[in-house]
# Entry
Amino acid sequence: MDTESTHSGYSYHSSRSGRSNRHGDRSRERHKASSKDSVRSERSVIINPPDSPTQESPIHNGEPLPGEPSPGAEHGDEAQDDNWGETTTAVTGTSELSISQEEVVGLGKEIQDRTQGFRRYLPLAVGSCIGLLVVATPLVFLLLPAVMWPERLQTCGAACEGLFLSISFKLLILLVAIWALFLRQGRASLPRVCVYRAFLTTLTLLLTMSYWLFYGVRILDAQDEDYHGIVQFAVSLVDSQLFVHYLAVVLLELRQLQPCYSVCVIRSTDGETRHYNIGQLSVQKAALSILEFYYRDFPLHNPALLSASKHRAAKHLAGLKVYNVDAPGSTAGAQPSNGNQSRAMVTAAGKRKDSAHNELYYEEADYERRVRKRRARLVVAVEEAFTHVRRMKKEDERASPSDIMDVREAALAIFPSMARALQKYLRTTRRQHCHSMESIQKHLAFCLINNMSPKAFLEAYLAPGPTLQYGPERWMADQWTLVSEASVTSGIKDGTEFLLKCLDFSLAVTIKGIPFIRLTEEYVDPKSHKFILLLQSETSV
# Structure
């Protein structure tokens, strides 16, 4: 195609050479202007799609052949090619700052990781700074008078020295309490700031600044000589801080202990449902508690189990055919026959739909039969392997110490005898992706070290365990999105609903209030349970 277009172009050039001379200067000026623009913008990428080549004006690399008129001269006369997207040549300028798409994705992920790390450790850093300010303020109150005007201070008596001992132990208790309640690594990254934590932080800063303001005006400016009063002032600050910490314990820990609501959690893919009781929490705190319950109680999400139902539905829909009776081009005589045929197909599809429950019944029965068969083979293989290990253990007791096999070596030795049966069982139950060969061998060595039975070894594979029993790479849900109509910082109430979404599924949460229970007492007289048994004196022997 290129050869033909070039040949036709040169023939056209030989026939119309006079016209090309008239347009030569104009094309050279346009080429110079475009080259200047490309030099001026070295760091930008320019894509110039030229006009499509035709037989009358062939174009190579965005330039006309020597002596040919420019494409724009006859744009109004010649029509544009419909396949211009396939023959377009892109002219790009070199860029000094060009990067690949993979580098852009990696840069975005790195920025996101840094942002998440900053949000994770920011509350810990703020809590540490406030804790240091709270602990250091009473000590500074005691040291400043002794440094600035020591010669004017009154002597500290026995009562003042006793206050030193009191403030020392109170500060130690406050420091340990702050470490236990606030200086803890966060369990999760919440979308909003906790209202109670913000309130307590503001109250602590307001209390400290108020004491600093009073201390600066009444003690530093006046250079108070009563050192006993200064010590009492510092002790009162420590007492106030202890009361604020007690308030923090009540709001953050004790308030949510009493159950007030019943929560229903439903997984969207398989309908797995759990119910929990929680206390007075905000929406985001309730979501965090539910996720902790989910990783502990819900079985591992297995998308492979959902493929069978989808395949069956697709197979059923594939059997339904729709015919257009009134299609254009159909003759009048053929319409009645087409209508009868379509009605027959609809009737057959209806009968097939009625028999769908039979197909489901036999499919599930066959699946259960295959699972029982694979399970029996697996149980027999594992029992034989453990029996062999026990027999070898008794022989090792009579053998020399140099010939005794290590437990991990024994696990590696007996694993091939049960590997095939275990692999077939996991494939049948569609859980082969949940267990790797390394994890199975490690679990087998753990069971042999602790002298466990074959049933204890098989329990991890016969039934799906909770999500936390598997590795983090098997969870497939490490980032969650909270979808709620109510504000996430507001407290939950009766009828609150929200959604926890991850990549493959979601958790629908419905909250119901625990009803008020009215319990009454009914007194039963102990004498009402007494009865008399009358026996006749004359009885048959």
About this structure: Residues 1-24, 30-95, 330-337 have pLDDT under 50 and may be disordered. The longest helix spans residues 101-148. The longest strand covers residues 506-513.
